Amino acid sequence: MAGRGRSGDRIEPSFSGRPARDDDEFSLDADDRVVGSRSAPRGGSKPPPQRAAPRRQREPREREGGGIFGFLRRVIYWCLVLFIWAGIGVAGLVLYYGSRMPSASTWAIPERPPNVKITAVDGSVIANRGATGGEALSLENMSPYIPEAVIAIEDRRFYSHFGVDPLGLGRAIVTNFTAGHMVQGGSTLTQQLAKNLFLSPERTLERKVQEVLLALWLEQKYTKDQILAMYLNRVFFGSNAYGVEAASRRYFNKSARDVNLGEAAVLAGLLKAPSRLSPARDADAANARAQLVLAAMREQGFITDSEVKTAMSQTPASAKSYWSGAGHYVADMVMDELPGLIGDVKEDVIVDTTIDKSLEKKAEQSLVDVLDKEGGKLDASQAALVSIDGTGAIRALVGGRDYAASQFNRAVKAKRQPGSSFKPFVYAAALEKGLTPYSVFNDAPIRIGGWTPENYEKKYNGEVTLATALAKSLNTVAAQLVMYDGPDQVIKLAHRLGIESELQPNASIALGTSEVSLMELTASYAAFMNGGYKATPHVIRRVTTAEGKVLYENTYDSPPRVLSEQIAAEMDTMMMGVIENGTGKSAKIPGWQAAGKTGTTQNSRDALFVGFTSNLTTGVWFGNDDGKSMKKVTGGGLPAKAWKEFMVAAHKGLSPAPLFGNGQLIGDPNSGQPMAQAAPDGGQPVTAEVPPSTTIGGIISGVFGGDANANRYPQAPVRQQAATSGNGPVPPADVAEDDGSGYGSVVPPGEVGAAQTTSSVRPRRTTLLDLIMGQ
Questions:
Q1: Where is the Glycosyl transferase family domain (predicted)?
Q2: Is 360 a catalytic residue?
C-alpha cells in the first residue's frame, strides 16, 4: 500500500552496475547463461578460457560439411544451377532465332525439282533427266531394304523420337569425345530433311536452332512414313544423283524398285560422305561402309545372319565413273528438243520415245566390236550410228564409242563431209531430168574449170551405165552428172529429201564436200526406202505428265511425197548394185534385199556406209574426233562391217521382204520368178512398172491414215537447157540432135570444162528398156 504513493516511474534492477537503457529491459551475455551443471561465475567477471568454448562446439559442424560427400553435394548443386541457367539460355536462343524465322503458318514443303522420265517403245526407262536425276517413289514402290538400311545406320529410333533424339545426341557426344574427333552425328532423319528442304549447308548456331524447330514442325505436320519418303527422294547420293531412284540407276543401272540387300547397304552407306564413299570413286571404301550398314541392320533385327552372308556377295565391286550406255545419247537429245515442244518443264513428265532398247544395245555392240577388233590397227577411234524406220522414227542412235568417256553426240551434232554417200542425190536428180539407170556416160579423165576429179583407184572404165557408175562409185561420172543436173538442182533435191545443212553449189558437191550430219543423211536415204515419202527424223513420240495429261504428240503421220515411185524404185535397184557388185559388198545380208552407198572422204578422214532394207535405214560413220586420217579405211570397210553386224541382228527372226518396187527376193529359192527384167550389160535389173496397190508408199499411207496422192509430191525441177560451169556451157543429153541412126542421148566428153561442139558428142544406142521407160 505504501508503494501507491510513489512515483509511477519504475526503476529496473541492474546486474552490472551500469545504468539501465530504455531499449534494453533485460539482457544476458552468453557467459551469463547456465550450461549443464555448472554454476554461473561469481562477481560477473568473464575468464578468457570460458569465452572460447562456443568455438570448440562449432568445429564438429565444420567437419560434417567437408570430405568427398560435401564435394559431391557442391558439384551437384552447381550443376543444377548451371543446368537451369543453360536451359534459360537455350530457351532465350530458341526464342530469339525463332523470332527471326517466318511465321509457321507460312511454312510449306518446297516443290521437288521436276524429273523427266525418258522411256523406250516398250515402256522401259532409258534415263531420267532433271535436277534430281530420278523420279520420286513411294515407300511401297521402292525396295524395302532401302528404308531399313537407312534407318539402321542413320536414325535407329526414327519411329519413336519426336523429331529430335536426345539419346542419340548424347550417344554421339560420348562417341565423338571418346574417339577424339567427329565420328558420329546426332541429327535425326527429320532434322536432315529439314536442313535439305529449308536451310543452307553452313554450320552455325542459328541454322542448328532453326533446324530443330523445323524438325518439330515436320513431325507435327506429317507422318513418319511421309517424312521418310520425302527424305529418301531428296537426299544427295553423290555423282549428281538426288533420291534413291537416281542413285540406283546411276550406280547399278536399275530402278530402286529392284535394288537388292547388298545394293541397299551401299546406298545407305553413301549418306555419310556421298563423294568419298561413291562406288564410282572408291569401290573398296563403299563396300567397307556397306558392311557396317549390314551389321547395323542385323543388330536392329531387320535381317538375319544368313541374309548378311548373302548380301556380302551382292554388293557391287565398282560402278562406272559416269552415266554409261548409248541410251544417254538419246536422253541428251530428248532434253535438247523438249523445251521447244512443251516449253519449260515445271512438273514431272514422261517422254515416250521411238527407241527400241534391244536395237539400241545391238547398235552399240556392233560399233564396239568392230572398233575393238580393227579400230586400233587402222587408227579409227570413234564411230556413230543412226537407224530410222520408214516414218522417220529413230529406232536406235549411238553418238560415240563410250558415253562415259565422251558425251558428244557425233550422230547428231557432228557435221562431216559425206563423201560418195552423197552421190544418190546426184543420181536421183539426173533420173528426174529424164536419164535412166542404163544411160551411158564415159568414165574418163575430165576437167571442170580448174578441178580434175579422179576415181578412188585412179582407174577408168570407159563407157558405163549409171547403175554401174553408182555401184563402183565412179567420181568422174558423178561430176559429169552434177554439171548435167546443175548443182542447184542437186541441192534442191537433197533439201527436199531431208538434208537441212547448207550445201555449197559447186561441182565438187558430187563427191560430198559439203558437210552434213549422219542423222540427216540417214533420214534422207529413208525416202528411197519407203517409196518416195519424206522421213522426218524424230525421237519423241509423246510427252505426258505423271498424271497422264498429254502435253505433246508428234504429227508425222502424213508425210509429203518427195520422189516419184518410179524414181524411188530405180534408185533402190541401183543402190542394190552397190552391195551386190560394187563397193559395199561387205554389207551384204543373207536372204535380204539391201541397198546402200559407201562414202570416203579425202585421206580417209571419214568413212560412211548408209543403207536400208524394207524395214530400216541405217547410217554408220567411222573416224577420229580430231580429223586425223585413218589407215585406208573406206566406207566399204569398217562402216559396212558394223552396218552388217547391226542389221543382221536387227532382222533376226523377221521374214525377208523385198525393197520397194523390186519384186521377188534376191536368192529366194522358192520364188521361181526372176526379180525383174535384166539389164543388157549385166547390171542390176529394174522393175519397169510398179503396181499402185502394192507400193510401200501406199502401205505407209494406209498406216498413217491418209491417201498418197500426187498433190503431196512437189513438181520436179524444170529441166535446164544448159548448165554452166567453168569455161562454158555443158549441153544436157536430151538436147542433142538425133541424126537418124537410132542414137538418142550423148556421152559427155572428157573435156567438160571446154566449149562444147557437136564434134565432141559421142552417141550411144538406145536400149529396149529405154523405150519401155519412155526415153
A1: 131-297
A2: no
